[in-house]
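User: Just a sanity check before I run the rest of the batch. Below are the structure tokens for the first item. I only need the designed sequence back.
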């Protein structure tokens, strides 16, 4: 005879708890997996075909270099009566080295995500107020 205070869990609840426990164990096991040794790691370019690697290595055949050339021209070009980026930042190869790896990031002052386009627009605004900053 069952007591009035005895409770049983429904089979669905038991199955859910069992699955949750198995999931937690699997996540912990994956976290404990040994890292891949450096000598075994491959660069992403090693997974592309030899023809694609050759195309990327050739500055004249690589279509991406068209955009690099265009960007270099825009860097030196004054836009809308404002000064060009190069007038404040000089040679992009030196002054902008490593910039791409720092964005997007959190702008603490504005408490929002800062992306490269917004930073560039802010630089243009500051420049139009005649206060260039590196």
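Assistant: Here's the designed sequence for the first item:
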């Amino acid at each position: 005879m069952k007591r009035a205070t005895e409770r049983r869990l429904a089979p669905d609840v038991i199955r859910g708890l069992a699955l949750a426990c198995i999931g937690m164990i699997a996540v912990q096991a994956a976290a404990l997996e040994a890292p891949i040794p450096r000598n075994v790691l491959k660069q992403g370019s090693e997974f592309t075909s030899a023809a694609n690697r050759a195309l990327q290595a050739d500055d004249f055949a690589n279509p991406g270099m068209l955009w690099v050339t265009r960007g270099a021209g825009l860097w030196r070009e004054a836009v809308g009566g404002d000064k060009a980026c190069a007038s404040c930042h000089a040679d992009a190869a030196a002054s902008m080295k490593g910039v791409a790896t720092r964005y997007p990031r959190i702008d603490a002052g504005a408490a929002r995500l800062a992306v490269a386009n917004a930073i560039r627009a802010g630089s243009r605004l500051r420049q139009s107020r005649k206060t260039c900053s590196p």
